[in-house]
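Notes taken during the Thursday session

The instructor put the following on the board and asked us to keep it in front of us for the whole hour. The protein is Solute carrier family 15 member 2-like. We were told not to look anything up and to reason only from what is written here. First, the residues (724 in total):
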Amino acid sequence: MAEETSSFRDRFRGIPKSIAFIWTFEFMERFSYYGNQAVLTLFLLEFLSFDDDTTTAIFHAFKFATYFTPILGAMLADSWQGKYRTIIGLSILYCLGHVMFTMSGLIGSAPYPIPGGSAQARVPVAMIGLALLSMGIGGRKPCVSSFGGDQFKDGQEKQLGVFFSLFYLAINIGAFLSQLITPVLRNDVQCFGQDCFALAFGVPTIVMALGTVLFVLGTFTYKKRPAAGNLLVLVSKAMGNAVKNRCSRSKGESRDHWMDYCDTNIYSPRLVRDIKLVLHVMIMFLPLPIYWTLFSQQGSRWTLQAYRMDGDTGALGTIKPDQIQSLNPLLIIVLIPIFQGAIYPLLEKCRILRSPLQRMCTGMALSSVAYIITGLIQLKIQSYLPVLPADSMAELRVVNMAPDCSLAPVFAPPIDDFTTKFKSPIPYMDQTVLRDVPVGQHTMGFSCVSGPSQNLTAYPVNLGSQEIYSVIVTDKNSQLFAPQPYTTRGKKPDKADPMMRLIFLSDPSNLTPDRMVNVKIQSLGVPDQRHMFYNITENAATDYVVKEPGKFRVEVQYNVNGNLQTGEVSETYIAKNGGVYTVVVFGSTSDQLSLKWFADVEPNQLNILWQVPQYVVITVGEVLFSITGLEFSYSQAPKSMKAVMQAAWLLTIAFGNLITVVVAKSRLIQDQAVEFFMFAVLMAVMTAIFIVMSHFYKYNVIPPDEEDGDEMTKYRTERNSARV
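Then, after some discussion, the predicted structure tokens were revealed:
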């Protein structure tokens, strides 16, 4: 036991002090990045008013840029500035991108501090911010981890392993915390009467700025290597030389590999050998972008799916749609030690999934399964969507608000198949819905099965095609009365937030002689939410307005003898995401005002916890695919080419996101469930192809390094020796 403890301590003994600065900087940067990404989809959808497909395309174009620009960052660091100065410069650019993005959340009409009349005024600032962010995030990505590795001496392999483990832990802890916190800042804090995107972006901005300052403060502890030339550039030149010589080869000349045409008087034989080993591995990368196409949609399509689900989880509280994605880093933190300590040893004993390629195949298959689950959930969500009336048909809703009356409606003359639907009287404060009523002019009559009210006869109803109407029957001086039918919304809100309108059935003259009454829908949970007073008349309906979900009350204002009076309707009501509501205010005096609310469209029905299985499955797949894939590509590359292999791996992620951009902007698939199933099938096909490729793959035998030192120096030395 003492030996094990000593071995554990030995792994940490000798770790340079500079690692504390680098690890904390990476944690703060990842908090900043994932905090921004967590709310990006809803920012594009709600604040910039893009549709689902454009939102998805912009999100993944941003992700594409962040995984493509690492190549440029590596070139800048290795060929010109060195890693340290590159990290500093691109971190400043990163912070500027954050500032621009935060500013875009402050643009709007009063009371926003930066003038801008519409959502379109925010778009240029936000897009510039995204461009700067992508260059800063991607450019520094390959530099920080390798700069951390540069801090260790030869013979510190154990400590280097500890560093990379802690480095990966920093990434996931930062991601988990930020994906929990920034959605709360967005939703639970109101800025200028709306979700506070400026605060949700501002906090990551401050964290990134502080992280950059902290990294600079550690300057005196760093071991800095000067720029020694870029290996990617050298490899590209050597490959170009081989292609050129192959195209100009003499007739009948043939060599085993096209890289054998590379001029070894210009490029060292060792470089040519290493490039051939890398290309052998990179062929296996060809099917991999599809995996990243699926995986990266957790922040876009999966968030949009959660956006249309019910986040109320009871004892667990309310989970926000951009918060559920924090499950991924949380599961990574939990699953990695479980796999390393239990599952992989068990698989070794059972002699299954022992090779990296076998595990990668399993991870790809699991991502396909995750999308089958996602598609099934989407089908369930779509099954709850309201169905509008067919062509030449309408929907009629009859609401009974006549006290002490069991309402019996009839058509006069009767309409086939509808008389029986009114067989049972409508109780007080209840409604009956008639679907597929023929369009045109109809006459209705209303009577009370029980109650003193006199009948209402010859009530005209003119129904339009594919429209929904509400008839509210009330009592007026012991006589049944109904205003003209109200046109009612039958579709879900364009965004997730609920929509509501108010119908005022009271006579304003009962409140004030001038009949001037204003009403306001007031949120109890968000008092500073933007509100509007409506000048109301008897039996009038306001337009539908969009509000944050929560509990609401109705406030009434009117003048009596020149004094402003304010009254509140005693009852409250709750509006949930995805719902459309009609709130009816009735009563004769301010002290007797009451309300009754009806759901014109039911709120989101499927609970957000139904997304947990797809997150579990795709995260298990990530452990098997992503982490194993990094290990595979690292172990199969010569020491001199590990940076090139990392760049190739990042490119598979970039092109995976590019595929999502193309699919989203092409709009070829209108049904979201069908799109999810399409991705599942595509992933299954690519998995089958990868299984076949893996079967025939021959693992590289990496020659031992003849010498230590900088790889560019080795290639130059060998090339000069060849010339001599």
